[in-house]
Each structure stands twice: as C-alpha cells, then as structure tokens.
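Holo model, magnesium ion. Inputs:
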Amino acid sequence: MMNPVLRRETITSLRGWKNYAVLTFYLFMMTLGAFIFFYSSAYESYRFTFDPQSVVYLYVVLGSIQMALIVLSVPALTAGSISGERERQTLDLLLVTKLSPFSIVIGKLLSSMAFVLLLIVSTLPVFSIVFYFGSVGIGSVLTLVCFTLTTAYMLGGISVFFSCIYKKTVVSIMLVYIFTGILCFGTLILVVLPMAVRGGNQVSNTVTLFKLIPNPGVAFFSLIDGQIGSNIIKDVFFEYTQPSKNSFIQWGAEHLWILHIIFQLVVGSVFIALAAGSINPVREHKQKNKRAKTNGKGKSEV
Amino acid sequence: MLEIKELVKNYGKFTAVDHLTLSVGKGAVCGFVGPNGAGKTTTMRIMAGLLKATDGSVVIDGVEVTKNPRALREKIGYMPDFFGVYDNLKVTEYMDFYAGAYGIAYKERGPIIDNLLEIVDLSHKKESYVDSLSRGMKQRLCLARSLVHDPELLILDEPASGLDPRARVEIKEVLKQLQGMGKTIVISSHILPELAEMCTEICIINGGKLAAQGSVQEIMQKLSQKRIIHVQPLGEKEKMIQILKEQPFIRSIIENSQDVDFDFAGTNEQLAGVLKQLVLADIPLISFKEKEGNLEEVFMQITGGESV
Ligand SMILES: Nc1ncnc2c1ncn2[C@@H]1O[C@H](COP(=O)(O)OP(=O)(O)OP(=O)(O)O)[C@@H](O)[C@H]1O
Ligand SMILES: [Mg+2]
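Output:
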C-alpha cells in the first residue's frame, strides 16, 4: 500500500500552483543556460557558427545548473514539511493514527523526492541536445541523475530533521543552506589551507581524500570530470599520488563521487532516523522527564 | 475501560495535572469539566499517547498507555481542541487519507466513509474542499475522522467549542448516536450544563486535581451540603441582617439590593428557628427559601469561585 502521507501530498500538490511555478522556473533556468551557452560559444567563433565539439561543455553547464537548482530547491520544498503540519495543527492528528513517526517522515521525504525526480525528468529534453551531438552517452546522464537524486535524498533528510525541530520553515531552510555551505566550502578550506601553508607535497593524500568525501561540489565535479575524460580533480588535489603507493587512494581520487554517494546515503538516513525520533511524542518526553528528574535531584542536594 | 491513577504532569516547575485518579466504565459518557487551564487538554493528550506523563499511569482496556501507545491507537479516537485541515483536499479524500493512515484497506474505505459522513450529516459536502467548510462542519468532519477506525474509546476535547447553539445541538445529536452504538466517550468542556444532559458521569477538574466525580445527581447533592438561603424582606433589611448576624449557624451573609442570601450550616430545625426569630422580630418577609442549586453554581463553588 502506498504511504498515505505521500499519497495525500501528491493529490494536494497537483492541485496547488506552487509546484507548477517551481517547475516552470526550473525549466526556464535550464533553457536559459542552454541558450546563453549556444549564444556565447557562437559569438566567440569567427563566422558565428557553432562547434559541435564544445557540446561537452554544454553538458557541464546544464549539469551544474541542474545541481545548483536541486541544492537550492530541495530545502525549500522539504523544510516546511513537518513544521507546516505543526503550524496547521494537523501533526497531532497524524501522530494519533497508526502511522509510525518514521513513515510520516518518509512520506514527506518521498513526496519531495518525487517532485525532484519530476524536475529532473522534465529537463531531459534539454539534455537531449547533448545526445544529439553525440558527445556524452546516456549512461553518463543517468549516472548524473542518480547523483542528483542521492544529493536530494541527503538534503531532504536534513531538511525534514530541521523541520521537526524548528517551528519556522525559514529557519530550517537557512540551516540546511548553511549546512550545505559548510560541506562545500568548509571542507574545501580544510583541504586547501594546509596545502597552501605547507605545500601540496607535504599533505597526506589519505587525509585530503577523507576531507573531500563530504564535499558535494567536489564530488559533483569529480563525476563530470571522469565523464568528459579530464583529470582536473586528481591533478588539483592529488598531485603527487603515485600509482603504486596506495591503490585505494588512487581509486578514490578518481571516483570521489562514489564515496560521496555513500556518504550522502548514510547522512540522509541518520537524519531521517533522528527526525522520526524527534516527532515521536512518547520518546521525546522520555528525554524531557530524565532531564526533569536529574534537575530535581540537583535541587534537593542543594 | 479507562483507569487513571495518580497521574502527574509537570511543565518545568508548573504542575498541570496533580495526582489525578479516576476511572470510566465501558459504555459510559464521562464529562471533563473545569475552567481554563484546569488540565483537561493535558490529561486527554496523555490519554491519547501524545504526551508523556511525568508520573502515574493511564490504563485503557487493560493496556498501559505509556508502555504501548501504538497498540492503543486502534482503540482510541481522538479529537483535539484545536486542529487544522489541509488545503486542496476534498472531504472524501480527507477521510480516505486518515482511513489509510489507520491502515484500513483501500476497498473497505468507501462504505466506512459514506457511513460516517452520513452520521455527521456531511454527505452533501462529499466533493467540497475541506478548507471551504464552515467551522461547525469542520468540527463534525474531524469527529468523523476520529471514528474512521471504529475505536472503542472516544476522547473529544471541547468538540463544541466555538460553535453556535444550533451546531452544538447537532454535535450533541451525533454524540448521543455514538453513545447508542456503545462507545465509551470522554468529552471535555468548560460549560457544565452543556454536558449534564448527555453525560452519565461528570468529573470536575480544577488546578489539575479532581474536584468531584459522580453522576449529575451526586454532584448536585454535593452542593446541598452547603445551603444558600434566600430571604426577601419588605423593608427593614438592616434590622434583619442584624438578627441574622447573631445566629450561630450562619457562615456568611451576602447583601443584595432587595434581598439577602446566607450560607447556612445547621439542621432543618435550626433553620426553622431562624425563620421564627425573624417573624417574632416583626420583619415583614415575602420570601424565605432555599436556593435551588444549579449546575453553574456547583461549578463555580467546586472550582473555587466562592462569590456566587
Ligand atoms: N506546553 C506547555 N508548556 C507549559 N505549560 C503548559 C503547556 N501546555 C499546557 N500548559 C499549562 O498547563 C495548564 C493546563 O493546561 P490545559 O491546556 O490542560 O488546560 P485546559 O483545562 O485544557 O484549559 P482550557 O479550558 O483553556 O482548554 C495550563 O496552566 C497551561 O498553561
Ligand atoms: Mg483545553
């Protein structure tokens, strides 16, 4: 049986205007990206013509826009899921049913994931330009879609969690953006700073690899990197990797995105479990009681 | 059906429910009455498994709520005091959603929903959007929602609040029907007379404590332990009050513009003696009678509003 929360979300969102607005904006941005790309690459060339070789870069541009839009829209779509129920005073009505807190959270997450999937599928026609010129295969695009979906899963899980904790949706959205920002730039600084201070060859590749795993930005470019046949990530961060030294580091430097997908799945699941725990009324108050009891003890001693 | 023992709920230092003990039998309709902040909602939320008690126990149908809240969800229908509805959802879809949430198979939902909408008189609104319904209709819809899994115990937190008299009567009709179906109902209100008609027993809660429990008659008898006597003289009021003040069994005298009420703690013979003294003092009396206790007053007295 379909998760009732997912089912209801689907019905109501198909009737609302919000998702259509997001979809329209999303497609507009993708098309705009493609248009600007064609225009500028044609402008640069002598005879105002277009070089089919450069379509590879169109793939990079479209993939990046897609990724950025997903990172921006998933928190906006998901961070209000539980706090919205609370605000509307419908959460209690859900919690007294036989639905477990876990299935409520999953239902919410799946409904925004389903919409993300719809967004991605709707942009496939734009991606088909890339197929048309034959520079990137369908396998690559599907891998990119998978990567985008696991990113949406992680961000969705975090958003649902914040949504359970904070009453204001805006606060949750901002917190997810900050979290994403830390993952992208915080880890990057942690990697680049020691390299700049001590010099690239003094920094352990193993440490660099583990610092880079949580970074969605680097992971995304490592995926694209491999797909278009360049070696930028490896050259920038793992300059001195010797093939013989450590085959895992060697493999990791080239497949950072696979490690990152595992990271995303783990982090997303942990946050989903935390979210389910935090809306479980009985469990939540167990913790509160413990705190109250220890407070009481402290007072009686004084 | 429902056993509450020594229930305590603290919010920080504040005690919202204070060692509450009561029991409700199967098929009973129990009214929770109390002023704002008495702890009715808190108690009901604990019963529904939405709040964890600080101490004490709630046992429903032999099962401890705190130990196994999920096992009890099938048995409890809960209607909160405040609730919302979803946008862009039709009445039948709304019911279907909750039926699904209670794990009712897709095929069985149709007849159940039709039947419930019939009971709450919303059959004509099936295709309307829930957010377009009036307050009273939403309230009835929420009642239908809480019945979707055919629970044995209904916990209704002020189901008639904010409704006009006509809508209140409609809700009451539905509740009578449910009572006829053999459901155990716990219903809260801060208006005692409203509950009196339909409840088999009343629990008066004040400051988180049980102030009185019993049938409507029993509660009324509680009042008559404290007798208010109403006397109306034709002039010479001051002289009469002077005499009354000398009487040993009169605890307090309330002076109104035309007449006097006093709180009498003696026996009937002693009361007759008071009347005799007034007559012997030549006070022209046109009325001397015991005030009939009405439910409002019981409520005010028991909940500590002494100034009737
Ligand atoms: N979450 C909370 N945090 C702190 N205090 C609370 C909380 N919920 C309720 N209270 C307090 O507990 C007391 C009992 O509240 P409750 O809602 O149970 O009263 P009630 O009998 O339902 O009143 P009403 O008739 O207004 O609905 C109140 O004094 C209230 O301020
Ligand atoms: Mg209340």
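The pocket of magnesium ion (ligand 2) is lined by residues B 40-41, 81, 157 (CB under 6 Å). The mean pLDDT of chain B is 86.
Archived with the compound record.
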